[in-house]
Amino acid sequence: MRAVYLGNGHIEAAHVVLETQARNPEGLLRLAQQAVEEAWRARPSLAEVDLSLYGAPYRAEDLPLLTASVPQGRAREFLALREPRRYDRLWLNPGKTGFLPPEPVLEDKPHPEGPESFRAKERATQLLQSRTGPRPGVIYHGDPGRPFAALTFDDAPHPLFTPLLLDLLARSGVKATFFVIGRNAEAYPYFVRDLVAAGHELGNHTYHHVRLPKLPPEEVRRELLLCNQVLAAITGTTPRYFRPPGGRYSPEVLRIARELGLATVFWTDDPGDYAGLAPGVLERRLEAHLRPGGIVLLHDNVVGTLEVLPFFLRKAKERGLVLGPVGALPLARR
Predict the structure, then answer these.
(1) Which of 79, 131, 153, 221 could be 300's S-S partner, Cβ–Cβ 3.0 to 4.6 Å?
(2) What domains can you pick out in the chain, each with its CATH number?
């Protein structure tokens, strides 16, 4: 058993990860209950304990066998359970597994891939969009004449991090767009419901988080469709926006997204929070690129992001900038 504890300056949560040979639901539930008891025994002040139980031996493409989120106020209810399906913040794997391992494709800047003529046109479009207005189905940034910037988080949801991030955003009254990995949403559907209930916007970040231009068109379509289907099953709504992992895209990727009714969203500000930067460096990078019409890219599973987010939200307010979801971003008109 491995337990990770993390706080956001206001509350602390834990994520317990277990590998087990058990497969029957009741046995998995008993293991989860024991893990919750141990976590609270170690840290009685925890606001929440999250759980992920995997089959042994663990493989990168595997989904958990069972996941659960246990807020402090529902601990007694969870520990008294005898049937896992009676708890709404628990997911029991019906036998699903991923067919691709997630790729650690990191976003730094949008990367068009394909013929040089396409790449050159994309670079020019990115530079000119603030004057020419957006082209259908692609958003690089918003209207620089309006005091609004979009706040976006990639790779959601994650146990431990998502509840702490939601708490910080709620305290500041700020809404954001979360680009969701389908397999993460599948395994932690209650966090997806939490995001929607808190008024945040969801976007498609593929099902497996893989670099799309290397895939044949039918695989690209499947990645986007699977994520759409998972989110629609959980929330009743299909997302409007899509962000390709790593910002890697091609003419085929843009075409397929457009055919599925998805606008492809890039960014203007990526401070590289995933690189384990010192908080001061991350703060300076965020502040340096904060601008009207900007699209800020952060990740929902980075400790440094939790540490600097209150600073960033405060700085935006001091500059008179409103932060919000992509759907509220004013776009330059042609």
Answers:
(1) 153
(2) 2-92 (no CATH), 111-328 (3.20.20.370)
